[in-house]
Write a structure and sequence with these properties.
Length: about 400
């Protein structure tokens, strides 16, 4: 008789694990990783001092000197603010230097772990290398974006609240914001100032002597049909002044006492975009090269040498290559009413006037695509190099 077999009972199922899951392999950076990157950059006192000095210190010192000079000698020094001061500071200082300091911060963020020997320690923690790289982007932008915004706010405040009360056009004090008919009426009432100081083209108007204006000490040229012998009548002078005002209105209409709200908003977004581009591109370049110094030098060469050349020069058979430069793309997005950052008068950007015509032609759609390609491309290259680098 066969012995009875005992049934084996299966082991009880393992209890479900209710503890925190290990997310170290995720490519999405956590808040703690971003905060750590932010603190590492913020603790670099020399770098932070340079960022504050360039973004906030330079425009503040310049405007403070102008405020004091105007306060002590108002007849010798004009107001500290106004439309011209604003446009020159934004396009000539904050745009260029904001890009450079953002590139310096990006180059530091992209190479600090390697230069300080911390890369191996970060890798052994098991964190995703991609997450470690992506955490640097919001951490760096959290530093550079507010600094640019503070400096820009100071420029806007002084430009508006310390603006001149009267508009000086060709050395003549003219009311600001006049319509075409309003300028004609004002010119008719100030014929001598208009005829002696405003620019115009036309045959001669005899016996009109000017003092210190552009036509000082000479007999000025008047509008067609105004030539005649003897002293011109008051009606002739008024008609000539109106004709001169018509020729000058397009130029007068571009003059303002202070920047408008829409121009300040567009300009602020534009220089912030330039700073973001400088940081992201330098971050990828420094990560790709593994060091900061050469990356910073290359970014400065790109901004101050290559971009002006490729933006304005017409190089045969290389037009498409020129359009791929990110500096040309941002120049085409410049708000109308600002001078070109690389020289030239008048406003750049869409509807910006004759200065925009100095740039190599490029549509707004192509400019946006170039900017996106640079941001995505350098992020991919920087992240790829970090993921493949030996620890």
């Amino acid at each position: 008789m066969a012995p009875a077999t005992t049934a084996q009972t299966p082991p009880p199922p393992a209890a479900p694990f209710d503890g925190p899951r290990d997310h170290r392999g995720s490519w999405i950076p956590t808040g703690g990783m971003i905060a750590t990157r932010f603190m590492e950059l913020r603790k670099r006192r020399g770098l932070m001092l340079a960022l504050i000095l360039v973004n906030i210190g330079l425009p503040t010192i310049f405007l403070t000197v102008r405020l004091l000079a105007h306060a002590f000698a108002p007849k010798s020094y004009g107001p500290a603010g106004g439309y011209d001061i604003y446009t020159n500071l934004v396009a000539g200082v904050m745009y260029v230097f904001g890009f450079i300091v953002a590139a310096t911060l990006g180059s530091t963020a992209g190479s600090v772990d390697l230069t300080e020997g911390m890369f191996r320690h970060l890798v052994v923690t098991g964190r995703s290398r991609l997450a470690l790289y992506l955490a640097r982007i919001p951490a760096g932008l959290a530093i550079i974006v507010p600094l640019v915004a503070i400096g820009f706010t100071i420029v806007c405040a002084v430009s508006v609240f310390a603006a001149p009360t009267t508009l000086s056009y060709n050395g003549v004090k003219v009311p600001a914001g006049l319509s075409r008919s309003g300028l004609d009426n004002w010119a008719a009432d100030h014929a001598d100032e208009v005829l002696c100081s405003f620019n115009f083209n036309g045959p001669g108007l005899p016996n009109v002597q000017c003092g210190n204006g552009p036509n000082g000490g000479t007999v000025i040229n008047g509008p067609p049909g105004s030539a005649g012998a003897g002293q011109p009548t008051t009606a002739q002078l008024r008609a000539a002044a109106i004709e001169v005002a018509k020729q000058n209105y397009s130029s007068y209409a571009t003059e303002f006492l202070y920047p408008s709200d829409s121009l300040m908003i567009k300009s602020g977004l534009w220089i912030e975009l330039e700073a973001v581009i400088g940081f992201v591109v330098a971050l990828g370049l420094a990560s790709l090269m593994g060091q900061r110094t050469i990356a910073v030098i290359l970014m400065i060469v790109l901004e101050l040498v290559l971009t002006p050349i490729f933006s304005m020069a017409r190089i045969p058979h290389l037009s498409n290559l020129q359009r791929s430069v990110v500096g040309l793309a941002t120049a085409h997005l410049e708000p109308g009413g600002l001078p070109l950052a690389f020289g030239g008068g008048g406003g750049g950007g869409p509807g910006g006037g004759r200065a925009a015509s100095q740039l190599l032609p490029e549509s707004t759609t192509v400019a946006i695509c170039v900017i996106v390609a640079w941001l995505v491309g350098w992020t991919v290259l920087g992240a790829w190099r970090m993921m493949t680098r030996d620890a």
